[in-house]
Amino acid sequence: MSKLPNITTSIFSVMSQLANEHRAINLSQGFPNFPEDERLLQISERLIRENIHQYTPMAGLPSLMEKIAAQTTKQYGRIVNTSTEMLITAGATQGVFTTINTFVSAGDEVIILDPSYDSYEPSVLVAGGIPVRVSLNEDYTPNFNRIENAITSKTKMIVINNPHNPTGRIWTEKDFESLETILEKHPQILILGDEVYEYITFTQPHISFNTRKKLKHRTVIASSFGKSLHVTGWKVGYLIAPENLMSEMKKVHQFLVFSVNSFSQHAIAHYLDVVDFNEVSKMYLRKRDLFQNLIRDSRFELMPCDGTYFQVVNYKEISKLNDVDFAKALITKHGVAAIPISVFYNDATDRSMLRFCFAKTDETLIAAAEKLCRI
């Protein structure tokens, strides 16, 4: 009997395969297609012959954890005890799975805000929990009336992705205050804060759960180096949580992966001495602005993009096709691949929206925009 009977081939695989078949420009999957920082490559070349290829400690490489703790203090003012409040994971997705499967038991409900990243619900289902999908507003801001109405005595956790994939929106101070007001009434509810795009924000600063005094004692924060350092294939992420939560997660992590790739941890630990996350954000801001300006005169309507490296557009002035069919037609007829937003909803809400990834070379973005502007 399958634990995930309704899981089929992901839309990312479908669109990328179709893009390959038709030699389309692939703006669907969320990974950069430009070279890594030369400094990171030089560090990697130097380290590859050093004695760093055996197991690291289960919770993570101590030098990397100290660098993360220092960056967390610098960025958010939070002091993190690396021995009791941090865990290095095989990417943020493993961190999400570990968190959910540590705290969610059979019959527990987990609130997921739609449109949502596709790993949340399967993680809940494997744990025996019940996903409760709650739609965001039409402008992809949180609807706190819906969130509060979804809470029951069985609610164990709420998953909040900020900055938000797939929509590119980020939460405001008012949003956090609304959440705090609601959760004051429900002290049993834990928060999983997925903050993998924390260093890619544009219109306003990212507000992290690390800074929320009323919430951080009940929050597990998942972060990732794959997005911020554009090394998605290295699969190195980390969790930050109070000791009482972290001690339980380490038990699950130990028998899931035991320890994370040693070479990547060493290389990132050295690279954190030289990388400037403000420069990462500026680089993606330039790419966002380039892509927006290139397609501003097209028939696509640009949605707000506050953070991440995703741009959502509305195509209602172009076609009446549903978003999945239009995304396929965009590949086969026009040579550009995107992701339809309806696949991120439990009920396949279709508002004629597509997600483009602009973490690409300027040449790729220019070539894609030329095709999009001809539609």
TrEMBL record:
<feature type="domain" description="Aminotransferase class I/classII large">
    <location>
        <begin position="25"/>
        <end position="371"/>
    </location>
</feature>
<dbReference type="InterPro" id="IPR004839">
    <property type="entry name" value="Aminotransferase_I/II_large"/>
</dbReference>
<keyword id="KW-0032">Aminotransferase</keyword>
<dbReference type="Pfam" id="PF00155">
    <property type="entry name" value="Aminotran_1_2"/>
</dbReference>
<dbReference type="GO" id="GO:0030170">
    <property type="term" value="F:pyridoxal phosphate binding"/>
</dbReference>
<dbReference type="GO" id="GO:0016212">
    <property type="term" value="F:kynurenine-oxoglutarate transaminase activity"/>
</dbReference>
<protein>
    <submittedName>
        <fullName>2-keto-4-methylthiobutyrate aminotransferase apoenzyme</fullName>
    </submittedName>
</protein>
<comment type="similarity">
    <text>Belongs to the class-I pyridoxal-phosphate-dependent aminotransferase family.</text>
</comment>
<dbReference type="InterPro" id="IPR015421">
    <property type="entry name" value="PyrdxlP-dep_Trfase_major"/>
</dbReference>
<dbReference type="InterPro" id="IPR015422">
    <property type="entry name" value="PyrdxlP-dep_Trfase_small"/>
</dbReference>
<keyword id="KW-0663">Pyridoxal phosphate</keyword>
<dbReference type="GO" id="GO:0005737">
    <property type="term" value="C:cytoplasm"/>
</dbReference>
<dbReference type="InterPro" id="IPR015424">
    <property type="entry name" value="PyrdxlP-dep_Trfase"/>
</dbReference>
<dbReference type="InterPro" id="IPR051326">
    <property type="entry name" value="Kynurenine-oxoglutarate_AT"/>
</dbReference>
<keyword id="KW-0808">Transferase</keyword>
